[in-house]
Amino acid sequence: MLAVFWDDADLALGDGKLLYQEYNQFNLSDIYAEIIFNRTAQDVTKFEAQNGKAPFSPSWIVKITWDHILPVSHQKINLSESNTFQCILTTDGQRSFALLRYSDMNWGPGQRTNHDALIGYTDGKDNFHNEIPKPPNNLFGRGGRYRPQTVTGNTGVLGQLLYDLSGSTESSSDPQRKCQLWAFSEPDPKEWALGLAPCPCTRSQAQEDLAFGPDTLPSQQMALVRELRDLRWGGRRGRVFQSVLFNRQRAGKRCVYDPEGPLLAGYSERYFTEDRTQQHIEKDLLPFQWCCVQSPLCNLYLEKRPLDRCQGYSWSSFDSNIPGSRGAPGIGLAYGSLHFITFDGSEYTFKGLGEFVIVRLSSSTGSNVFTLQGETAPLVTGGQPKRVPALVRLAAFYQGVGKVEWRCAESEDGLKILVNDVVVPVFVGVVRVGEQGFAVRCITKSRCAVVYTEGLNVAVWRDEAGRLAALVEVPQRFYNRTLGLLAHWSSNRTDDFLLSNGRLLPSVNNITPSEQSLIPFGQSWAVPPPESLLFSQPPVTPFNPITTEELMSSVSPDMLARHSQTCQSSIQCVHDILATGNTKLGQQVLEDQQLLRTRTQIYGNMPPIVTEPTVIKCKIDTMVRVQVKAQDPNRDQITFSLALPRPPRATIGSGDGVLVWTPQSIQPVNLTIQVSDQTSSTMITPVLQLCNCLNGGSCQYNSVVENYLQGKFQVVGCLCPAGFSGKYCDDKADVCKGKPCFPGVECFRQKEPDSFTCGQCPFPTVYQDKPGYKCFENDFCLPPFPFPCHEMADCSSTGYNYTCKCKPGYTGSGKECTDINECMDPSACPNAKYECMNTPGSVRCSCRYQKTRDSDGCGESANPTGWNVFNVSMGWKDPKSEQGLKQLEEMLSMGFQNKFYSARVSSPDPVTAEGLNEFRINVSSDTPHWYVMDYLTRVSQYYGIRSAYVEDLDECKTNEAVCSKPAQCVNTYGGYRCVCNGTDLKEIQSCILEFTGVNRTDQTNGQSLEDKKSLILGLVLGIGIPLLLLLLLAALACFCCSRKKTVTGDIPHLLPEYVQETFHPPFNFDDPALQYFPHCSPRTIDNLTVQHMRHYR
């Protein structure tokens, strides 16, 4: 079993097609077929070369293509998800391969729950091979189970696999497998059986036919050959004859006969000669055992070794041009001193000396094919020559074969044989077999024959007086093509005596012309010297033969009557007794005549030839009527009978040949039909194919399940109806045995035949048509159902229901979804430096300082030294809430992260008359108050802020400045200054007013003013002027620095709508004065450090 791509497909969907084409090496119809053969041979040969095996030449190919096949679908059909792939099966008779090619493999998961496509093969016994993806759970990814076109196969080509399906042919013990391999490797019999002689139709014919002799066994493996031959039909009880000749392919014929005479079977053997004994065993004998005895594949054996039923041995058809044809070959005889019996049965005596043409055969074009010449000489008995001639030498020449010559042996009574003028030894048996298609066979040492192909035989024997006799058998193809002393074969005696010049010596009223009148006929067939095969010298002494009339008149009537009685009224026998004075020589003539009559009778009386039936198909307890078809070559009346033992309830009409039989069981039995004429019979044992199907099963006569009697009795298979199974459909089928339901779903048998139900499909799958049979992922969220949810919701099907859930960024029931304004949540963007912009289903955070010259992100930088202290006034929407300092710290920590340092409640009264909470916050020195104000305004709705105001804290007004009295407090942005006598005080300094009423600095060392007047004057004069210049330079630097605060870009006005609706910030963000650079600190002015209130962290 081969799985090219094993999964549920639906050819009814889309444009999917299944295409196939068979190719045979004997039927390469077009150039495309040749391309298929050549490419397959190349691909397989390359694959086999990797394993060190011989090249592959396919003899048969079938190509199957699945084109744009769609998977089985319950609901959703995606026409783009199709698969295209191909399989090529090929064999050379010994090796078999599957070539798999994958093109566009686009199946997706669809709505199927099991994705278990298989690619591989198994022989159903020991060999299993499956392609496993890497990793094994990879389904639809590259190299996955459903993407074989992305995998480099064992051929080294992407998307191409090649499997060797041959199995182990050497060690296989399966007879059926052996039979199939043998049959596939065997050529058509027409290639090697041409020219084989057909089996004689009867045993007696086989005994007389010079082209057939007794069966012989090889000198090696004799016992095994005998055992295997006995296994064939008729082998044990039959009598076996074999052909003397073999054809050019060294094939021959063996014929098996019933002891009573009919032919049982004729076997054409491809490996016939003894030098091919091992091949004869493996290729001729063992296949019969594999195919006909051990398996039900006898039809394969008969295709490669067709049985011979003697068709063609006699006339293959009745020819109206052959009057009174008895179906025999032409037989002529030259014997005695010197008598002839022509092919048409005319008898005459010719007493000429010299070399004569006994018979000459011509082809259809008129050219000479075969010549038999004989040399005559006066008969010598008792040392005295007689006045009658006899044959002393014979020579046969077959065009393209050579010459065979018969002579009397000089030293003994036997024959001397020369083949092409070379003496061959004479012994009983086949003494010579020529490669050109002839053999010399000796029955005795004094009787030898030359056997040619296609039925031409010449038998020559020697009698006691040294006379030679010749019997010539001519096959039917030479009908009307014979000339010479054996006359013209035409089944008409009136034209027998055709002279060599073409003139006819007529026979009046079918009466043979007189001996004297036939002398010109005989002399016309004298061999001209250039055509001689014997090269004999002409007679030296004159020969005066005695005529038959003179011999008959030379004795008394009583003596003539006694000789006639002795010779059984044979004139030729009486002639030779009188001519030689030797009764034995007359008796020899009588025996020669009897030999001809016997052979003519045996060959002429052909048995009936049965053509049908060769197979009888029948059913138990059902009567079958079969017409036996037979014909008799002699047109004799035939009768029909059944040989014993006959099957019960089997009869046949003796006259009409109608066989009637009602089989009652599958007990093996032979049914042999015998068809007889008056003298011979033919037997045929047809193959009986019995059907024993029960419960309405259909008989499958092309499928044999049991084989008996060497393939002659076969029980055929059954196609069981619904609900039944078993070999004969006698078992009630368990429809659940094959697990027809969906994997994991239980199967339940029903009372009705072949009926079952399945359990429910596993959640969340659903079924279509039949519950639990095929289960799919039903999806109410996909067509053809209308989408049940809001367009901004996700739909999840649960088999028979569905749920809707709004997508992220939306809120609602799923049936209805609205966009969530993520900007309401301060955490939507990283911090206050980003502007939050709501988008459908999401949010976009844009940097408020995109045009900054900083390269480290959105205004991100390390905090500079110092800090700013701002006053924050906040009012809450819910006055009862416990919001306050903690809430403010949370907001500022999220919005400003490292820019925010600390916050505290304003003391002593944190709540103003307007109900606002007062806070003090410490932020980095590069964070302005409007930045904080802007952020609090943006998040006011989220945190429930009713109002928020951020301003610079005037520490001098709020008495939060720490200045030594009587130093003057001067407020600055984000801080304050303590000035004494026009000079900023440090924290360790105190202030003492000068006498002029202006405050002065009191040094901690307690020096008196008087002591330092001179010093102050010196400082004023020595340092004051340079210091004034330094202050002017500082003022100029500060001016330049303040110019550098102008940003190159604008802060976008991107307040959300809800913020704009709630507050109107008192800032114009387009004002360059409010634009902010984190790296330019205003904390140091004129080289004077601004005083700050204590930093709370």
From TrEMBL:
GO terms for cellular component: membrane. The chain crosses the membrane at residues 1015-1039. Residues 171-305 form the AMOP domain. Residues 4-168 form the NIDO domain. Residues 330-533 form the VWFD domain. Residues 777-818 form the EGF-like domain. The keyword Cell cycle does not apply. Gene3D superfamilies: Immunoglobulins, Laminin. It holds the Pfam family VWD. SUPFAM superfamilies: Growth factor receptor domain. InterPro entries: AMOP_dom, C8-3_MUC4, cEGF, EGF, EGF-like_Ca-bd_dom, EGF-type_Asp/Asn_hydroxyl_site, EGF_Ca-bd_CS, Epithelial_Barrier/Signaling. Its main location: membrane. It is found in: Membrane. Keywords: Disulfide bond, EGF-like domain, Membrane, Repeat, Transmembrane, Transmembrane helix. GO terms for biological process: cell-matrix adhesion. One of its GO terms (molecular function) is calcium ion binding. The keyword Thylakoid does not apply. This is Mucin-4. It comes from Triplophysa tibetana.
